[in-house]
Design brief:
The protein contains one helix and nine strands, in the order E-H-E-E-E-E-E-E-E-E. With 152 residues, it is mainly β.
Length: 152
């Protein structure tokens, strides 16, 4: 028997698909290989709706560059098949072959027709990075944000 719910909540299904939680290093190699991770890769699994591409994955937020909206330990689902729009949050590969997670902001088009974009931290204590000044490649677009409220 299902428990009775208050008017402002409903029961949800536990999810239909397992997504790997991969490291920032693995994510940094996403655009270079046809199969960026295999079954069972990742250090954890998140379960969710089956509404993303086959290569969607979760990243865990590290540091405080995306405060106040994203806390360290939050997890975001990244879908490499979704092209970002201005204002979306993205995972991008930086020059160190690691992934970074920032807000995507378009700044124009260069002489070759490539989009010039910025990766913007929400915390003003961190610098904005521009694609015409640093080599950066967008890996994918955030489609879900999960936050756990822990008490110790």
């Amino acid at each position: 028997m299902e428990p009775k719910m208050d008017q402002n909540v409903v029961a949800v299904s536990p999810g239909a698909r397992a997504y790997p939680v991969i490291s920032h290093i693995q994510a940094g190699h996403m655009k270079e290989i046809a199969e960026p991770y295999g079954p069972g890769d990742g250090f954890d699994i998140e379960y969710g709706d089956n509404d993303a591409s086959q290569w969607a994955f979760f990243l865990e937020i590290k540091g405080d560059s995306m405060l106040p909206e994203f806390n360290e330990g939050d997890r975001v689902r990244i879908d490499p098949e979704i092209q970002p729009r201005p204002g979306d949050f993205v995972a991008a590969k930086n020059g160190k072959q690691e992934a970074t997670f920032k807000k995507y902001r378009v700044r124009g088009i260069d002489e070759k027709g490539n989009e010039i974009f910025e990766l913007v931290p929400l915390n003003d204590n961190y610098p904005v990075m521009r694609s015409d000044e640093h080599h950066m490649v967008v890996i994918g677009t955030m489609t879900e944000h999960r936050r756990k409220f822990r008490r110790k």
